[in-house]
From TrEMBL:
Domain Endoribonuclease L-PSP/chorismate mutase-like: 13-139
Classification via CDD domains: YjgF_YER057c_UK114_like_1
InterPro entries: Endoribo_LPSP/chorism_mut-like, RutC-like_sf
Superkingdom as given in the UniProt entry: Bacteria
Name assigned to this protein: Endoribonuclease L-PSP/chorismate mutase-like domain-containing protein
Organism: Corticimicrobacter populi
């Protein structure tokens, strides 16, 4: 009996986490959803959209941190959906999550940006283990496109 492929293992792990990959979203402007340069994949900013519907809009609120973390988790799923699309569906080609950059829609009193982005970071760690550990920046913005609460972009190292 053969061993499951890395792609199969990662997709099974998503299922164990109660998650599935959404369809890769179509850009909302004059840009491409990702660019590959060598073995690096640069994924454009992804919002908390599932099946074309935007979830978790409006500014983050410290009193409801779990909702904002869930928005970041959805963004991370969309990053993975774009990576899967770039790799013809094979998540096993992801060698490492290199870097995340996240924006949190908030006001000047909000200080939990890093905690919000942990929603995405934890997903990558739960899915990839040490290969999911990455560099990161979390920043605030007074508004984001379409009123989304969180937007995340990523740099991912791919295997040939």
């Amino acid at each position: 009996m053969s061993q499951p492929s890395e792609n199969d293992r990662l997709r099974q792990r998503l299922t164990e986490l109660g998650l599935s990959l959404p369809d890769a979203t179509i850009p909302q402007g004059a840009y491409v959803p990702y660019v590959r340069s060598g073995n690096l994949l640069f994924v454009a900013g992804q919002g908390p959209r599932l099946n074309g519907m935007l979830h978790h809009t409006g500014p983050a609120d410290s009193a409801d941190l779990p909702s904002s973390q869930e928005a970041a988790r959805i963004c991370a799923l969309n990053v993975l959906a774009q990576a899967a699309h770039a790799c013809s569906g094979d998540l096993g080609r992801i060698e490492r999550i290199v870097r995340l950059a996240g924006l949190v829609h908030c006001d000047a009193t909000f200080t939990a940006h890093a905690s919000v982005l942990d929603g995405a970071s934890t997903l990558f760690l739960d899915l990839f283990g040490e290969r999911g550990r990455h560099a990161r920046i979390a920043s605030g913005a007074v508004s984001l496109p379409s009123g989304m609460r969180v937007e995340i972009e990523a740099v991912i190292a791919l295997r040939d």
